[in-house]
């Protein structure tokens, strides 16, 4: 007596055997016989989803956690470029100093690869204008101007904060005019003290030179 609905055929193209106890692959969700149920048995293309092995840095032997499904090579490369404490990795980071300006890219190159249009530096992967969505020379000039303005604002803010802290230290219970006058007086006193210090250092040298000249002249007269 036959049972046509019992069992299923193996999904492997070279097998197709009817198996009464088939196994469903938990990675690709296909049905296989006992001979092809393993990942390697049917060359499962989704086996990486179930691979929970943690890659190890070949330089410092540190386990590198990765998200499931992500290629381990990328995580290891990123670790070597930024976190690895081995001496070869440190030497490599000293050589590879030209960082890519593409958004989200952390790659660095040994030599600068500057775009002729936007004048920014990129890695080998993003060196072409189409690869880094180049905005052109006008955008580059705007970015430079904005960066320069931001740098000037930051410097001015730092100077203002420094002057404010100095005034607060001097001010105490005095008002702003008295504190400002006190700060100017302290600055003038410091300059006068420095000039006096330099003068005292140079004076003995001058006297020694004069003494030598006098000795030489007396010797010449005799």
Automatic annotation (TrEMBL):
Residues 192-222 have a biased composition (Polar residues). Residues 145-165 have a biased composition (Low complexity). Residues 4-52, 94-142 form the AN1-type domain. One of its GO terms (biological process) is protein targeting to ER. Keywords: Metal-binding, Repeat, Zinc, Zinc-finger. Signal peptide: none annotated. Residues 145-222 are annotated as: Disordered. The keyword Repeat applies. One of its GO terms (molecular function) is zinc ion binding. GO terms for cellular component: endoplasmic reticulum. Pfam families: zf-AN1 (PF01428), zf-C2H2_ZFAND2 (PF25403). This is AN1-type domain-containing protein. It comes from Laodelphax striatellus. The lineage of its organism: Eukaryota, Metazoa, Ecdysozoa, Arthropoda, Hexapoda.
